[in-house]
């Protein structure tokens, strides 16, 4: 049977400071530059959520993307939108909020919440030029 991947985009904005407290201030500035700014800065994030499966014989859908949207909003976007990743998001406590670490934490929330739909790919855009991909490995 054909396996088809369908994707829903969701947008949110959030503040963060990329900082490793185990390193000196000088080392943090050297490694993270402007993203180490002590008084935070924000990004307009775009999250792509992809689910893979066989199209249903009756609906022709792999999954209803409206349902995917609702689950992703409830389990993720509503918890991070207009928030500070360092201060306001319990499941990011103690995590340096690089895009890499943000997407792994996002996967851990969405993968169980989307079942029985099978999450197969996340892409998180931090800027127009930078994105990261994660497939749960
Ligand atoms: Ni940043």
Written description of the protein model:
- It is a single chain.
- This protein has 137 residues and is an alpha+beta fold.
- It has three helices and five strands.
- It has helices at residues 25-32, 65-80, 99-114, and strands spanning 4-16, 41-53, 83-84, 118-125, 131-134.
- Helix 2 (65-80) crosses helix 3 (99-114).
- It starts with a strand and ends with a strand.
- The model has no long low-confidence stretch (mean pLDDT 97).
- The protein binds nickel (II) ion.
- Residues 16, 18, 35, 41, 43 line the site of nickel (II) ion (NI).
Annotation keywords:
3 helices, five-stranded mixed sheet, 5 strands, Tetrahydropterin Synthase, Chain A, single chain, 137 residues, alpha+beta, elongated, binds nickel (II) ion
Unique bound compounds: nickel (II) ion
Radius of gyration: 17 Å
Q: Any idea of the CATH class?
A: Alpha Beta
Number of helices: 3
Query: For the largest beta sheet, what order do the strands appear in spatially?
Result: 3-1-2-4-5
In the CATH scheme, what's the topology name? Answer: Tetrahydropterin Synthase, Chain A
Query: What is the molecular shape?
Result: elongated
How much β-strand is present in the residues? Answer: 25-35%
């Amino acid at each position: 049977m054909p396996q088809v991947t369908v994707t829903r985009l969701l947008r949110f904005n959030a503040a963060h400071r990329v900082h490793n407290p185990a390193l000196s201030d000088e080392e943090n500035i050297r490694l993270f530059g402007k993203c180490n700014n002590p008084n935070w800065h924000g990004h307009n994030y775009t999250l792509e959520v992809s689910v893979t499966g066989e199209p249903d014989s009756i609906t022709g859908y792999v999954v209803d993307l409206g349902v995917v949207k609702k689950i992703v909003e409830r389990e993720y976007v509503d918890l991070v939108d207009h928030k500070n990743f360092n201060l306001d998001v319990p499941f990011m406590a103690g995590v340096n909020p690089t895009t890499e670490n943000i997407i792994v934490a996002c996967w851990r929330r969405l993968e169980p919440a989307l079942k029985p739909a099978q999450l197969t790919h996340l892409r998180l855009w931090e800027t127009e030029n930078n994105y990261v991909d994660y497939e749960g490995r």
